[in-house]
Amino acid sequence: MTTTTIVCEHCGHTNRLPASAPGRPKCGHCHEPLPWIVDAGDADFAEIAEQATMPVLVDLWATWCGPCRMVSPALVQLATERAGKVKLVKVDVDKAPQLSQRFGVRSVPTLLVLRGGEVLARQAGAAPVNALRDWLDRALTSQQDSSQEVRT
């Protein structure tokens, strides 16, 4: 199973998080929520994003895309601000052509908010962090989510 390493902003403890697991990640030391940021592709998107038990912010991007590189830090900031409330899943469209086709990606970045595999919101193009925050918060308030935790 693919894992990622996250350093807790609250206590500095290093946590290893699986790319896919039920619940919400919390620091193994101080138990504060952790941002969950992972990569996915055609082969593992269903397991990582669609089966997630929390809302998922999907970033469909490309390495050659300037606006994608500009919006990426804003998305990481949002995932950090919304730790325990949203999972950020980054999909390189050049490496995931089936997902690009499935979601009708015509331009990058394309952002989606998923809940249980269902698209709740869609945003094409880069936007400032404040606009993205408002868009994400509107999408998240449209659905209520459960409060399970992932143990690290």
Description of the molecule:
This protein is of the alpha/beta class and 152 residues long. It has one domain: Glutaredoxin, CATH 3.40.30. The protein is built from four helices and seven strands. It starts with a strand and ends in an 11-residue tail after the last helix.
CATH classification, class level: Alpha Beta
Average residue pLDDT: 92
- Write the element-wise H/E pattern from the N-terminal end onward: EEEHEHEHEEH
How big a fraction of the residues is strand? 25-35%
DSSP E strands, number: 7
Terminal CA distance:
14 Å
- Radius of gyration, Cα only, in angstroms? 15 Å
Describe the biggest sheet?
A: 5 strands, mixed
Output the CATH topology: Glutaredoxin
* Helix coverage percent: 25-40%
User: How are the strands ordered across the major sheet?
Assistant: 3-5-4-6-7
Structural class: alpha/beta
CATH superfamily: Glutaredoxin
Keywords:
alpha/beta, 152 residues, two-stranded antiparallel sheet, 4 helices, Glutaredoxin, 7 strands, five-stranded mixed beta sheet, 27% helix, disordered C terminus
Task: Break the fold down into its secondary structure elements and pairings.
Layout: E1 3-7, E2 14-18, E3 36-40, H1 45-50, E4 56-61, H2 66-81, E5 87-92, H3 97-102, E6 110-115, E7 118-124, H4 129-141
Parallel strand pairs: 3-5, 4-5
Antiparallel strand pairs: 1-2, 4-6, 6-7
